Every structure is written in structure tokens, then in C-alpha cells.
Amino acid sequence: MSNRYARSQIVLHWLTLLMVILTYAAMLLKDSVPEAWAPLVKNLHFNFGASVFALMLIRLAVRTLHATPPTTPPLEEWQEVGAKIFHWLLYVVFLMLPLLGVLTLAYGGKSWTLLGWPVPQWVTPDPVMRKLVKTVHETLANIGYFIIGAHALAALYHHYLRKDDTLRRMMPGK
Ligand code: HEM
Ligand code: HEM
């Protein structure tokens, strides 16, 4: 078995990181840009966020085609279980976040465009639901920073301290 993730998984993994950074960056920037640009920056947030959803779904499909490559030297069992739980947590959180974002707009009765196409209103606007869903979206987004941070720190721990091939397995190469 290869000692790396499949090339498609590696490309999709790092592309997801890029889109996640752009999604967060758009929201962090929205109050610093001239007011006239705010709608554009918000719409970029919605579209970058939607691309994270699509990428995570594609990754779930692609991972069914490839076995996860083993780590060398092998992980202790608790590390193996911990990594598995964390990876599933990443899938769940970064699939939920875009869905909650879309619901926030829908319950707010707000129009937005997906890749330039107007998204139709598909639920009855409801201010109470909007507030609830928006709070969950924003709280989960803040938790997301810590989840990604812990995930990246774990990768660095494996590479520099445990000196195994966890990170190299996710890096492009021959
Ligand atoms: C990976 C995906 C996403 C992440 C990480 C993310 C993250 C965030 C963050 C950090 C905020 C600001 C929180 C705050 O100010 O405390 C936010 C707000 C928001 N997001 Fe997302 N988001 C994602 C996807 C989406 C999507 C797909 C949509 C809608 C299509 C969306 C709609 C919204 C809305 C409506 C707000 C509130 C904006 C406002 O204050 O007016 N998000 N999101
Ligand atoms: C600096 C940022 C990041 C680094 C250094 C990093 C590193 C890695 C490494 C080394 C692996 C392989 C781990 C293993 O097989 O045990 C991995 C897997 C994974 N990463 Fe990341 N990652 C980063 C960001 C992200 C982001 C932003 C997401 C998603 C939002 C993500 C989601 C995942 C998932 C779901 C897996 C498991 C892949 C699978 O088996 O399907 N990563 N990452």
C-alpha cells in the first residue's frame, strides 16, 4: 500500500485549507473595507463557504475509493483512535458550518448569489430562528479555529517531535 494519501486527496485537502482561510478572512475583513464593498465581501464569504461544503462532500466520496495510508512508525492505538475522531469532527463541523450559514440567510429572508445565480427564498423568514441559527453558526465558526489549530499542531507534533510520516503522507511528492 502507498505511504501517501492519493494525489486527489492531497490536492483537495490543501485546497480546502485555502478556501477555509478565504472564508474566515472575508468575515474578518468585512468591517475594515469601505462600506460600499461590504456586500461584495459578504457574498465572497457565502461563496467561499459554499465551496468548503462542496470540497468536504467530494473528499468524503473520494476517501471511499482509497485506503488511508498507514503511518510509519505505527501509531499507538489511542493516537489512531484520536486521529480518527478528530478527522470525523472536521468533516462534521465544516459540513455543518456552511449549512448553518445558508439557513441564517434563508431565515433572515436575505437574498444572495451562488456563483452569480440568485438563490431563491426557500423557507418562511423567521427572526427567532434566524437569531438562533446565526448564533450557532458564529459559535461553531469560533470553535472551528481551535479545531483547525489543534489539527495543525498535531501534524507538527508528529513531524518534528514524533518524527513519523503523518505530515509527509499529506504532502505532494513523487
Ligand atoms: C466553512 C464555512 C464557513 C465558515 C468557517 C464561516 C465562518 C463565519 C464567521 C467566522 C462569521 C463571523 C462570526 C462573528 O462575527 O462572530 C460568519 C458569519 C456569517 N456567515 Fe459564515 N462561515 C461559513 C460558511 C458560510 C456560508 C456558506 C454562509 C451562507 C451562504 C454563511 C453565512 C454567514 C452569515 C449570514 C453570517 C453573519 C454575517 C453578518 O454578521 O451579517 N457562512 N461566518
Ligand atoms: C495548517 C493546516 C493543516 C495541516 C498542517 C493539516 C495536516 C493534515 C495531515 C498531516 C493529515 C493526515 C493525518 C493522518 O492521516 O493522520 C490531515 C488529514 C486531514 N485533514 Fe488536515 N491539515 C490542515 C488543515 C485542515 C483543514 C482546514 C481541514 C478541514 C477543514 C482539514 C481536514 C482534514 C481531514 C478531514 C483529514 C483526514 C483525511 C481523511 O482521512 O479523509 N485539515 N491534515
Q: Quick summary of this structure?
A:
The protein has 174 residues and is mainly α.
Description:
By secondary structure, the chain is an all-alpha fold. Helices cover 67% and strands 2% of the residues. It has four helices and two strands; from the N terminus they run αααββα. The chain has a two-stranded antiparallel ribbon with strand order 1-2. A hairpin with a 2-residue loop joins β1 (113-114) and β2. α1 runs antiparallel to α2 (38-63), α2 (38-63) packs across α3 and α3 (77-108) packs antiparallel against α4. The longest helix is centred in the last third of the chain and has 35 residues, at 127-161. The mean pLDDT is 96. The site of one protoporphyrin IX containing FE has 21 residues, from α1, α2, α3 and α4. It is found in: Cell membrane. This is Cytochrome b. Keywords: Cell membrane, Electron transport, Heme, Iron, Membrane, Metal-binding, Transmembrane, Transmembrane helix, Transport. Residues 4-173 form the Cytochrome b561 bacterial/Ni-hydrogenase domain. The chain crosses the membrane at residues 12-29, 44-62, 88-108, 143-161.
